[in-house]
C-alpha cells in the first residue's frame, strides 16, 4: 500500500510498520536471511554458526537456531526460525529483532557449564575456557542468552572475544558513528543539507500546521538562539558570540544568550571566575518577562560577591518589571548524580534480574527502596516550585550548580516542558533536548558511558524522560508525542549512529569530527504522535500564557510556602489549560513506575491484548478517519474514497486504516509492551509454563565485575 | 443570616427523592479535613444528610446517603473547652469520616444525633429501610434484567448432561440458594438431598457456567462436612464424579478450595474440611490461599488509615504494601485466572468452594466467568453476573454491609464485594477496550451497595428477599443504571466474542484504586473525565458532524449530476460504505 524508504541517517521514526502485502516480500528475504543486514560502513568482524538463542530457561523447545555475528556496529543473530509465539508486525528500521548495538551492551558473561566456570569479559582479556554459553546484559534492560553446544568451540570463543573487544572501544573515534557517517554522508552529502523538512514528511505534501513539517532548531547557530529570544518575547536579552570557535569555553555552545546589559568585554573577564568558564546563560523567558538562567559556581572566592551581584543586577535589569532574582542551588536541594546512578542500578536489578515471582511479595517496598521514584518526584517538585517563582512571583530564576551541566539540564528542561506548550510538541521537545542538553554541555559520552570505563555514569537523561513521562501520564492531552516516543528516544542513546548522544560537549563533537555527522533530533518521528492532541490546537499559542496572568496578588505577608501551596491548590482546582502551564501532582500515589520503558522486555509482565495501547489504537484509527473526512470536506468533492486513502499522509499516526475495506479488528500483536517485543529477551520461564529460576541461580543479582572476575 | 427561618424555601434547594422526607435541619460547622472548618446548614432526611456551606467563598456541598453511615459518636461534652470541640463524629463505610461541631449551649446536638441514629439505623427503631419508601420511577425495570431461566438458556442449558431442577423452589433444600439450580442430568433429586446433608448449610455443588465448546463447567458449593473423624459420604463422592463425567473428561475433576490449607484443616474442628484424596480418587484439590472475611476487613481498615484523611506521604509504597490489600487482590485474581484457565483450555471441569461458599467462592466464580465470557463484560451482562453469582447465591450482603444496623463492630461485616469490584477495576485498567462499562459504573454500584436507596443489595439471600417482597416493594439499582446507560459506557469498548481475558496478576501491574479509595481528598483526585476518553468523544462527535456534512454535500452534488448527465449517482451506496468501515 505504501513504500518504505530506505533508512536514512536520521533518527526519524525508526519503528515503522512492515508493509502488509507480505506475500512477495516475506518469501524473498528468506533466501538471503542468514546474511546479516548491514548498514553502509558496517563490516562483519566475526561469526559463528549453529548457535542457539535461548527463549526460555526451563525448556529449550522455543529456542531458535541460527548464526551469531559480531560487526563493528552490533551483534546480530540471524535465524531461519520464525518467532515462536508472535509474529511481529512492526520492526525497527535500523535493528533486527535479535540485534543489539555494541554501545548498548552493559556486560558480557561467558559460561562453561562443564567446567562450572564463568567470566565477565572485559576488553583485551583472555578466555581460558571454551564458552558453552554467552549472556549479554544490555543497557536497555534486556538480557540475551546464546548457547554454543553445537557450534565449533574455537569459533564460539572467538566471537565472544570479538564482542568483548568491539563493545568496549578504547577511543571515541572507534565508535561506529564515525564509520557510518563517513560512508553515508560521502555518498549523498548534497542531500543532507538540502533536506527541506528534516525527513519526516511523507512524499513532500506538508500538512498545514503539522509539527512534522517543522525543522528542529539545533541551537548551533546565532539565528536559532535569536529566533528563540523572539519566540519567547524576551526583551533585555541578546545573543552573544564571544565563544565563537570555542575561544572562551569548550563546554559552552558557540552562541548563547546573556542579559543585554552585560558587555562582551565584561563577560570575558567574568568568565575566568566560573567553573569551566561557564558563565550564566539564558534558557527561556516567561511572557511576563521572568527569565530562567543557568549558571556554574563562581570559584574565585574573592570576586564571588562582586560578580554575583553584577550578574544578578544584569538579570534584574533585563526583567521588564525589574523583579528580583530567585536563586536555586541545585546541588543542595536535589540528589546528586551518584545517588541517581545508585537508584538506577537498584531499579534495574529489581525490574529485570531477579526471579519474577520472588520479587512479587515485597515489590512495592523494594521499588520504594530503590529511591528512583523518590528522585523523579524530587525533580518534578522542585521544577514545579520554580514554575511558581517564574509565573506567580514574577521572579527570574537562576539555577546554580557546580558545573551547571547535570542537574541544571534536567531542571531547566522540566521547567520549560511544564511552562511552554511548544516544548510539548515533538519539534519543540527535540529542540529542548538540543538546547538544554546537547548544546549546554551535558556529558553524554561520560554519563552514558559509551567507552565503558567511566566512573561518571549516571542516567540523568533517562530521569528527565521519566519525569516527562509522569507529566504525559497526568496530562496526556497536553503533549503531541506518546510514551513510545520517549522510550524510543531513550533507546537511541544506545545506538551509535547518531552524533547527538555521543559527545560530552559541542566542542568535542566539532573537534572529533570534521565531517558532517547525523543528528538524532533532526528527524521527525511523526508516527509517534499520541493522537490526543490535534495539530491545529497545538500550534504554540503564546497568548494563552499571557492571558493566564492574574493581577498581582503577591504582596501578602504569609510565608512563602503557604502561598506556594495555595498557588498549586488553585491550579489543580481549575480545568487544565492545555496551551498553558501544566503542573505535576507529586504525591506518592501519583508518581508511578514507567512500565513501558522498564517492563517491556519482561514476558511475565506483558499484558497481551491489553494495556493503554488498546485505547490508543482505537483513538489513532478515529483520528485518521476524522482527518480523512476533513480532507474530503475541504476538497469539496465526493470522489471515490480510495483516492482519498491514497492521499492520506503515510506517516501520520502509528496505526492507520489501510484502506476502505480494512476491518478494524484489533490487531492480535498488541500488548502492553508494544511496539517492543519481549520475546527473544531472556525469559526466565517458558511463557506458558511454571516459573523456574534454574538458570538465574548463577546470576541472581546483576552480575558485578568484582564477584565474577575471579571465578575463571 | 437573612435566610434564617426561611426553612421551606431552603428545603426546596435540597434534592429530594420521591418518598424522601425532611426530618430536621441545623446550623453546624463542618470540620473539613482538607479545608478546615466550614460553617453550613445540615439537612437530615430519611434518606440523606445534606450540607450546604453558608460561607460565601465556599460552594461546598455534602450529600451523603444515611446508609453509608457505620457509626455515630458524640465528641466532647457540654463543658468541653476549645474551638469546635463539641459535636458529632460520623464514620462512613466508604472510607471517610464526617465531623460536625455545634454550639455548646442547650443540647444543640441532641436533635441531630437522634435523627441520625434513627434514620441511619432504622432496623433498631423498627423502621423500614429507605428502599421500601422510595417512590422513584424509572422507564426501565431493573428487576427484569435477571431471569435465571433465560441466563441458563443463553449458556445452552439444559442440555443432555445438565438439567434445571426446581427442588429448591420453596428453599427447602437450601435456604440460602436460589430457587432454580442446574445439576447433572443423571443425578436425581433424592440424590441431591443426600448430598446436601454432607455440605455445609446444604449448599450442594451446582453449575455456575458451562463452556460453550468444550463443555467443561464451573461448579460452586460449600465445604464438605468431613469433621475431625474424616467422615465420608458416598453420595457426595458419586455426585462429584457425575459432574466430572458430564463432559466425558478422562482427567480428574479440579477442586479449588479458596482457603489457605491451614484454614481448611482448622475447619475440620468445627465439622467442616475439604475433599481428601482417599475419598475422591477422581479429583485433584488445590488451595488458593485467599484469606477470610476478618483478614480482609482488617486490611481495608489499614488502607483507610493510610489514605484518610491524609495520604501517607513519606513511605507511600511500603505503607501500601503493609496493608496487604493489593496482595489479597492478587490472590483473588490469581485464583480466578486458574479457574478460567482450566476451563478454557478444556483440561478439566472445576469445582470451587471455601467454607460456606458465599464469599470467596462468589469472588472466584464471578471473576472467572468475567474472564471467560465476554457477555458479562457488557453493562447488562455484568448486572446479570452480580445478580446471579452474588445476589441469588446468597452472598450475605445484609451481614457483610450491615444495612440499617447500628452494630458497627459486627464481626460479620467485611468488604468482600468491594474487593470483587476492585478486581474488576484492575481488569478494566489492564484491558481498556474489553468492557462496555466504565469506572463510574463500578463506583455507582459501590455507592448504592451502601445507600439503601435500592433493593438490589438488601438481605442475605433470595428466600429472605422473597419474604420481604423486595422485587415488588423496592426499586432495582439496574433501573437507574439502565435508564442512564450513556453515562456508564466506555467509549473504547470493542465488542469481542469469546476472547478469554487473562489479566496479569502481578504486583507490577496492580494499583490502588485511587479514584475510589482516595476520592474524598481534593488533592489526590485525578482528572475527570479522563482526557484520552474525552478526546475520543470529541473526535467521535467531529466524525459524525463531518459525515453529515459530506452527505449533504454529496446529495447536492448528485442532484446536480443527475440533472446534468445520465450517469447514475452512487453516493448513497458510498455513504453506507463510509459509515460501516470503521
What does the model show?
The complex is a heterodimer of chains A (712) and B (582). Helices cover 37% and strands 12% of the residues of chain A. Chain A is α+β, with helices and mostly antiparallel strands and 712 residues long. In chain A, β9 and β10 (143-147) form a beta hairpin. Chain B has 582 residues and is of the alpha+beta class. Chain B has two domains: 22-127, Roll (PH-domain like), CATH 2.30.29.30; 148-291 and 325-396 and 410-531, no CATH class. Chain B is 37% helix and 14% strand. In chain B, the strands form three sheets. Chain B has a seven-stranded antiparallel beta sheet with strand order 4-3-2-1-7-6-5, with helices on one face. A five-stranded mixed beta sheet of chain B has the order 10-11-14-12-13. A two-stranded antiparallel sheet of chain B has the order 8-9. Residues 1-8 and 567-582 of chain B have low confidence and may be disordered. Chains A and B meet through α11, α21 and α23 of A and α8, α9, α19 and α20 of B. Chain A: InterPro entries: MTMR10_PH-GRAM (IPR036004), MTMR10_PTP (IPR030573), MTMR12-like_C (IPR022587), Myotubularin (IPR030564), Myotubularin-like_Pase_dom (IPR010569), PH-like_dom_sf (IPR011993), Prot-tyrosine_phosphatase-like (IPR029021).
Amino acid at each position: 500500500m505504501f513504500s518504505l524508504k530506505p533508512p536514512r541517517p536520521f533518527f526519524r521514526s525508526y519503528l515503522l510498520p512492515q508493509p502488509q502485502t507480505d506475500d512477495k516480500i516475506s518469501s524473498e528475504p528468506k533466501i538471503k536471511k542468514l546474511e546479516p543486514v548491514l548498514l553502509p560502513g558496517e563490516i562483519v568482524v566475526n561469526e559463528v554458526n549453529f548457535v542457539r538463542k535461548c527463549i526460555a530457561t526451563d525448556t529449550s523447545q522455543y529456542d531458535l537456531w541460527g548464526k551469531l555475528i559480531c560487526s563493528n556496529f552490533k551483534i546480530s543473530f540471524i535465524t531461519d526460525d520464525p518467532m515462536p509465539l508472535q509474529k511481529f508486525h512492526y520492526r525497527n528500521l535500523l535493528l533486527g529483532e535479535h540485534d543489539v548495538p555494541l554501545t548498548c551492551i552493559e556486560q558480557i558473561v561467558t559460561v562453561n557449564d562443564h567446567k562450572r566456570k564463568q567470566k565477565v569479559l572485559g576488553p583485551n582479556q583472555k578466555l581460558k575456557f571454551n564458552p558453552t554459553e554467552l549472556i549479554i546484559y544490555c543497557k536497555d534492560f534486556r538480557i540475551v542468552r546464546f548457547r554454543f553446544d553445537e557450534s565449533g568451540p574455537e569459533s564460539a570463543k572467538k566471537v565472544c572475544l570479538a564482542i568483548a573487544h568491539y563493545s568496549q572501544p578504547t577511543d571515541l573515534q572507534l565508535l561506529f558513528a564515525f564509520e557510518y557517517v563517513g560512508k553515508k554522508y560521502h555518498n549523498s552529502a548534497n542531500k543532507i543539507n538540502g533536506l527541506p523538512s528534516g525527513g519526516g514528511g511523507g512524499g513532500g505534501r506538508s500538512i498545514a500546521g503539522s509539527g512534522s513539517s517543522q525543522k528542529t532548531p539545533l541551537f548551533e547557530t546565532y539565528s536559532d538562539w535569536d529566533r528563540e529570544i523572539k519566540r519567547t518575547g524576551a526583551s533585555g536579552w541578546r545573543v552573544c558570540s564571544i565563544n565563537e570557535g570555542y575561544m572562551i569555553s569548550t563546554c559552552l555552545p558557540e552562541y548563547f544568550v546573556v542579559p543585554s546589559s552585560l558587555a562582551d568585554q565584561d563577560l570575558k573577564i567574568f568568565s575566568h571566575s566560573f567553573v569551566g568558564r561557564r558563565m550564566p546563560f539564558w534558557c527561556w523567558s516567561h511572557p511576563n518577562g521572568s527569565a530562567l538562567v543557568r549558571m556554574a559556581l563562581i570559584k574565585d572566592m574573592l570576586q564571588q560577591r562582586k560578580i554575583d551581584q553584577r550578574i544578578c543586577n544584569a538579570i534584574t535589569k533585563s526583567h521588564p518589571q525589574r523583579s528580583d532574582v530567585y536563586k536555586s542551588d541545585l546541588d543542595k536541594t536535589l540528589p546528586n548524580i551518584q545517588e541517581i546512578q545508585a537508584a538506577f542500578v537498584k531499579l534495574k536489578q529489581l525490574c529485570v534480574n531477579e526471579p519474577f515471582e520472588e520479587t512479587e511479595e515485597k515489590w512495592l517496598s523494594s521499588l520504594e527502596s530503590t529511591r528512583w521514584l523518590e528522585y523523579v518526584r524530587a525533580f518534578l517538585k522542585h521544577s514545579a516550585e520554580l514554575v511558581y517563582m517564574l509565573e506567580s512571583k514574577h521572579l527570574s530564576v537562576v539555577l546554580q550548580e557546580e558545573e551547571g551541566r547535570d542537574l541544571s539540564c534536567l531542571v531547566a528542561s522540566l521547567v520549560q516542558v511544564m511552562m511552554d506548550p511548544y516544548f510539548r510538541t515533538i519539534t519543540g521537545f527535540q529542540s529542548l533536548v538540543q538546547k538544554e542538553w546537547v548544546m549546554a554541555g551535558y556529558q553524554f559520552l561520560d554519563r552514558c558511558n559509551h567507552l565503558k570505563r567511566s566512573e561518571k555514569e549516571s542516567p540523568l537523561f533517562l530521569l528527565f524522560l521519566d519525569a516527562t513521562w509522569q507529566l504525559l501520564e497526568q496530562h496526556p492531552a497536553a503533549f503531541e508525542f506518546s510514551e513510545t516516543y520517549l522510550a524510543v528516544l531513550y533507546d537511541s542513546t544506545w545506538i551509535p549512529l547518531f552524533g547527538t548522544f555521543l559527545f560530552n560537549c559541542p566542542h568535542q563533537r566539532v573537534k572529533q569530527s570534521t565531517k558532517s555527522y547525523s543528528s538524532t533530533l533532526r528527524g521527525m518521528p511523526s508516527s509517534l504522535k499520541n493522537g490526543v492532541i490535534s495539530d491545529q490546537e497545538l500550534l504554540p499559542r503564546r497568548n494563552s500564557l499571557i492571558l493566564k496572568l492574574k493581577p498581582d496578588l503577591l504582596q501578602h505577608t504569609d510565608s512563602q510556602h503557604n502561598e506556594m501551596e495555595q498557588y498549586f491548590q488553585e491550579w489543580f482546582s481549575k480545568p487544565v489549560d492545555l496551551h498553558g502551564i501544566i503542573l505535576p501532582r507529586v504525591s506518592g500515589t501519583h508518581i508511578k513506575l514507567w512500565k513501558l520503558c522498564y517492563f517491556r522486555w519482561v514476558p511475565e509482565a506483558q499484558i497481551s491484548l491489553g494495556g493503554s495501547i488498546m485505547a490508543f489504537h482505537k483513538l489513532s484509527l478515529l483520528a485518521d478517519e476524522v482527518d480523512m473526512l476533513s480532507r474530503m470536506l475541504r476538497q469539496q468533492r465526493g470522489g471515490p474514497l480510495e483516492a482519498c486513502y491514497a492521499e492520506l499522509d503515510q506517516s501520520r499516526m502509528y496505526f492507520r486504516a489501510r484502506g476502505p475495506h480494512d476491518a478494524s479488528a484489533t490487531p492480535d500483536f498488541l500488548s502492553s509492551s508494544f511496539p517492543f517485543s519481549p520475546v527473544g529477551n531472556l525469559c526466565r520461564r517458558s511463557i506458558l509454563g511454571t516459573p523456574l529460576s534454574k538458570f538465574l541461580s548463577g546470576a541472581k543479582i546483576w552480575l558485578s565485575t568484582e564477584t565474577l572476575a575471579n571465578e575463571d | 443570616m437573612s435566610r434564617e427561618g426561611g426553612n421551606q424555601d431552603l428545603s426546596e434547594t435540597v434534592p429530594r427523592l420521591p418518598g424522601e422526607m425532611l426530618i430536621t435541619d441545623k446550623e453546624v460547622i463542618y470540620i473539613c479535613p482538607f479545608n478546615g472548618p466550614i460553617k453550613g446548614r445540615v439537612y437530615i432526611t430519611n434518606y440523606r444528610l445534606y450540607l450546604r456551606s453558608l460561607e460565601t467563598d465556599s460552594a461546598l456541598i455534602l450529600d451523603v446517603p444515611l446508609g453509608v453511615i457505620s457509626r455515630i459518636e458524640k465528641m466532647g461534652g457540654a463543658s468541653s473547652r476549645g474551638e469546635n470541640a463539641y459535636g458529632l463524629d460520623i464514620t462512613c463505610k466508604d472510607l471517610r469520616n464526617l465531623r460536625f461541631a455545634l454550639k455548646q449551649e442547650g443540647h444543640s446536638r441532641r436533635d441531630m444525633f437522634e435523627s441520625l441514629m434513627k434514620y441511619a439505623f432504622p432496623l433498631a427503631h423498627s423502621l423500614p429501610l429507605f428502599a421500601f419508601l422510595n417512590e422513584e420511577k424509572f422507564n426501565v425495570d431493573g428487576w427484569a434484567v435477571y431471569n435465571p431461566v433465560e441466563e441458563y438458556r443463553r449458556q445452552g442449558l439444559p442440555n443432555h448432561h445438565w438439567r434445571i431442577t426446581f427442588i429448591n423452589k420453596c428453599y427447602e433444600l437450601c435456604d440460602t440458594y436460589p430457587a432454580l439450580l442446574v445439576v447433572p442430568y443423571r443425578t436425581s433429586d433424592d440424590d441431591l438431598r443426600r448430598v446436601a446433608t454432607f455440605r455445609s448449610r446444604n449448599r450442594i455443588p451446582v453449575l455456575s457456567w458451562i463452556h460453550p465448546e468444550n463443555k467443561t463447567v464451573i461448579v460452586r458449593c460449600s465445604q464438605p462436612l468431613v469433621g475431625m473423624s474424616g467422615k465420608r459420604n458416598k453420595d457426595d463422592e458419586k455426585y462429584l464424579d457425575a459432574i466430572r463425567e458430564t463432559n466425558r473428561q478422562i482427567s480428574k475433576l479440579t477442586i479449588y478450595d479458596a482457603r489457605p490449607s491451614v484454614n481448611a484443616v482448622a475447619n475440620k474442628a468445627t465439622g467442616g474440611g475439604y475433599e481428601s484424596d482417599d475419598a475422591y480418587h477422581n479429583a485433584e484439590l488445590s488451595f488458593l490461599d485467599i484469606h477470610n472475611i476478618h483478614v480482609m476487613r482488617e486490611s481495608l481498615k489499614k488502607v483507610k488509615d493510610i489514605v484518610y484523611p491524609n495520604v501517607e506521604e513519606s513511605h507511600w509504597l511500603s505503607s501500601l504494601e503493609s496493608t496487604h490489600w493489593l496482595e489479597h487482590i492478587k490472590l483473588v485474581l490469581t485464583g480466578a485466572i486458574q479457574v478460567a484457565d482450566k476451563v478454557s483450555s478444556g483440561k478439566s471441569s472445576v469445582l470451587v468452594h471455601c467454607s460456606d461458599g458465599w464469599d470467596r467462592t462468589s469472588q472466584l466464580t464471578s471473576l472467572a466467568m468475567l474472564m471467560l465470557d465476554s457477555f458479562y463484560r457488557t453493562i447488562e451482562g455484568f448486572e446479570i453476573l452480580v445478580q446471579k453469582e452474588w445476589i441469588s447465591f446468597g452472598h450475605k450482603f445484609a451481614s457483610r454491609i450491615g444495612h440499617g444496623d447500628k452494630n458497627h463492630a459486627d464481626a460479620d461485616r467485611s468488604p468482600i464485594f468491594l474487593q470483587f469490584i476492585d478486581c474488576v477495576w484492575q481488569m478494566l485498567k489492564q484491558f481498556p477496550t474489553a468492557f462496555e462499562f466504565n469506572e463510574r459504573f463500578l463506583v455507582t454500584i459501590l455507592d448504592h451497595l451502601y445507600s439503601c436507596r435500592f433493593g438490589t443489595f438488601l438481605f442475605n439471600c433470595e428466600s429472605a428477599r422473597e419474604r420481604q417482597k423486595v422485587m415488588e416493594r423496592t426499586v432495582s439499582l439496574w433501573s437507574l443504571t439502565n435508564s442512564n446507560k450513556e453515562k456508564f459506557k466506555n467509549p473504547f469498548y470493542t465488542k469481542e466474542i469469546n476472547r478469554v481475558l487473562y489479566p496479569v496478576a502481578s504486583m507490577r501491574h496492580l494499583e490502588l484504586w485511587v479514584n475510589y479509595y482516595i476520592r474524598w481528598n481534593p488533592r489526590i483526585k485525578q482528572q475527570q473525565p479522563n482526557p484520552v476518553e474525552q478526546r475520543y468523544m470529541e473526535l467521535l462527535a467531529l466524525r459524525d458532524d463531518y459525515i453529515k456534512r459530506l452527505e449533504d454535500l454529496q446529495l447536492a452534488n448528485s442532484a446536480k449530476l443527475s440533472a446534468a448527465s445520465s450517469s447514475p449517482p452512487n453516493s448513497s451506496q458510498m455513504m453506507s460504505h463510509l459509515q460501516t468501515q470503521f
